[in-house]
Amino acid sequence: MRLASLRQLTLTRFREFIREPEAVFWTFVFPLLLAGGLAIAFRDKAPERALVGVAPAPSGDAAAAGVVQALMLAARGDSGVPRLRPLPADSVEEVLRTGAVAVVVVPQVGGGVEYRYDAARNEARVARQQTDDLLQRAQGRADVVPIRDVTVRERGSRYIDFFLPGLLAMNIMGSSIWSLAFAIVTQRSKRLLKRLAATPMSRLEYLLSFVLSRLLFLGLEIGVLLGFGALVLDVPIRGSIGTLLLMAFIGAAAFGAIGLLVSSRSRTVEGVSGLTNFVMLPMWIFSGVFFSSGNFPAAIQPFVQALPLTALVNGLRAIMLQGVGLGGVLPQLAVLGAYLVVSLAVALRIFRWQ
Amino acid sequence: MRYGRHLDQIAGSLALEVIGLRKSYGSVQAVNGLNLSVTRGQCFGLLGPNGAGKTTTIEICEGLNTADSGTVRILGRSWDTDATWLRQQLGIQLQETQLADKLTVDETLALFRSFYETGRSIDEVIDLVQLGEKRTARVVGLSGGQKQRLALACALVGDPVLLFLDEPTTGLDPQSRRQLWALVEGLKADGRTIVLTTHYMDEAERLCDNIAIVDHGQVIALGTPRQLIASLGADNVIRLGMGEHAPPDARVSLDELRGLPDVTHGREIAGGFELRVGSVQAVLPSLLQLAEQRGIRWTELSTHSATLEDVFVALTGRELRDG
Fold first, then answer.
1. pLDDT tens digits, residue range B200-247?
2. Most exposed of A1, A205, A218, B119 (fewest Cβ within 10 Å)?
């Protein structure tokens, strides 16, 4: 092992990367755009109010008309209940079918009401409950037990809080695998790999230089994304920064090794692109970047949990959101470490230099 | 003594020895029992058409490819046992390598220099290949000749004892070729051993002390350029063009031409004949006389001193550039 050549090789990787403006853009700016877009989509706002339609009372029925009138009166000025909208008699079926309203209140002869709604829709069931409550109180029903509502909005429980560690992990995976696969296969197709193999360069050094240069950029990448998350989106980082960095570094090294493995044989960039997507696609779907991986059936959980991105996502989430320490993420670190060692060993063995 | 360190460790006088080398790709026998020996300090040329097996042979010698059978000894050692040592001693230029586009000339050489334990300084090598003005230019902006000189510089940073140059001037303009030839001549004068492949006979004639003509994976002739040309038994070549539309009675046969004094060999070529002769002066009068008698109008009459190209034609019946 010659330190001078490891340094030169790593410098080469660094130079090639920063002299490719497009690569810099996709690595640093794209995740920020994505996080910013999501922050706008999931910004704080008042809880949505459901829309409830009220059909006209049967004509000439005073009792029914009274119930409707009391209901409309009770709802006026109360922002905590569904919005009520009177409907023409003939449009009840249509508004239900198109989902324009969550529930339709149909007054019955003699003062009773009928609620029509789709019980499979959560918001419809809630709106029905709230409307019924309003209606019954307007008719004089009193609470038996005194109650008080205290609502909380806790930092760390928003979707953006859940999503940011996933985005960070996905970015580490994508940039690690892509940057290696692209650079190596380009060098192979230009026969530069063969030229390097004709020098005394150590092959381990060559492969290590990729991993090292990835780590250099990783500091920047996670710095930018975490800084944006903490300062602009107010995403919490409850665990220690040290543990977080260690997790990210081991993750980047593992995905770097997977990138090496993916590009160990391909001769063309087109070929390695397909292979890269094939490797990453299951992880985009199953690893819980966008929604919890716990939603998948128990039968495929062993597969889901064995994916390296699942380990990285869960590890980063545990550190950032729950403040878990190093001891708590050891299983995830072990999974990533195993991918690192096995991929690197296999890549070294099957790597095609020509 | 420039190579004191290296020379102590090199046994014998042979820089390269290849015995009974064979290599096939599927059903294609690329190298078919090839033998070579290159003594130290000489410039040795592998001359042959494209597909003759030159590159496969040289890549096996460079340790980049493996033979099916046969022995290769480089500087008295073998790739099986001394690969690490050998890598430090060799300078290699591959056919059509593209170096990293985004690095500068300086950075490229610093990278290659870092692989060698000892070697020349980057300044020295840049001066040698005359790329001083392009030091900070990126590789992507270099001309073909400059790229080729940079590739040669990469082969030289390790101060190699033995240099392998695979088609160093293919695809270059005449001026760049002459520049590269001058560089190689300088390296020869330095006492380095050079093994180069080429399909240009003028290149081989000018640069090489010894030449092996390679065809179908075998050495079909071996010697100095002078010896090879002398082996033709004729110093000169005359080409005659008769035109496609000459009347039958105004024609001449190959046998008649072969019968002329001092003609050692003749063959038909498209639209005419090619004769190998001892002396042009001795043959020309009888040619002209024959033409006058028959009313033949030669559409072409040219003469040149015999070259390696003629040697190749004599050996294979094909021309080098036909491939």
1. 888 998 999 999 999 999 999 999 998 998 888 778 889 888 776 666
2. A1
ipTM > 0.95 for the complex: no
Question: Which sequence spans correspond to the domains of chain A?
Answer: 3-43+155-350, 51-138
* Distance between CA atoms of residues A264 and B35, nearest Å: 35
- List of chain B residues whose C-beta atoms are within 8 Å of the C-beta of residue A198: 62-64, 87, 90, 92, 94
The residues that bridge with B304 in the sheet, in sequence order, are: B237
**Enclosing H/E stretch for B245:** none
A51-138 has CATH 3.30.160 classification: no
Is residue B286 pLDDT above 70, yes or no?
Answer: yes
Residue A217 has pLDDT above 60, yes or no: yes
Higher pLDDT among residues A204 and A243, named by residue: A243
Tell which B residues from 276 to 305 touch A, by Cβ distance under 8 Å. none
Contact assignment for B115 to A2 by CB distance below 8 Å = yes
Proportion of chain A above pLDDT 90, given as a percent: 38
Kindly report, residue by residue over B48-98, the tens digit of the pLDDT: 888 889 999 999 999 999 999 999 999 999 999 999 999 999 999 998 778
Burial A133-166 (b: 16+ CB within 10 A, else e): ebbeebeeeeeeeeeeeeeeeeeeebebbbbbbb
pLDDT at B3: 45
Nearest to A104 by CA among A122, A121, A84: A84
Q: pLDDT tens-digit profile of B126-169?
A: 998 999 999 999 999 999 889 999 999 999 999 999 999 999 98
What distance in Å separates the CA atoms of residue B125 and residue B261, rounded to the nearest whole number?
56
* Whole-angstrom distance, CA of residue B272 vs CA of residue B90: 48
Tell me the mean pLDDT in the region B13-22: 92
- DSSP state letters, B215-240: ETTEEEEEE-HHHHHHTTT-SEEEEE
Q: How confident is the model at residue B1 (pLDDT cuts 50, 70, 90)?
A: very low
Residue B118 CB burial class (10 angstroms; 0-12, 13-18, ≥19): exposed
Which residues of A fall below an 8 Å CB-CB distance to B? Answer: 2, 4-5, 7-9, 11-12, 15-16, 19-20, 187, 190-192, 194-195, 197-201, 353-354
What mean pLDDT do residues B44-48 have?
Answer: 92
Nearest to B93 by CA among B157, B178, B49, B42: B157
Q: Which CATH superfamily hosts domain B4-228?
A: P-loop containing nucleotide triphosphate hydrolases (3.40.50.300)
B127, two tokens: 């001066």
pLDDT score at B290: 84
Instruction: Name the residue with higher pLDDT: B150 or A59.
Output: B150
How far apart CA A79 and CA A47 sit, in angstroms, is 10
**Which CATH number does the domain B233-305 belong to among 3.30.70.980, 3.40.50.720, 3.30.70.260, 3.40.50.1360?**
3.30.70.980
Say which amino acid occupies B218: Q
Give the count of alpha carbons within 13 A of B78, CB side only: 9
| Count of CB pairs separated by less than 8 Å, A with B | 69
Parse chain B into domains and list their residue ranges. 4-228, 233-305
Please give the model's pTM, rounded to 2 decimal places.
0.75
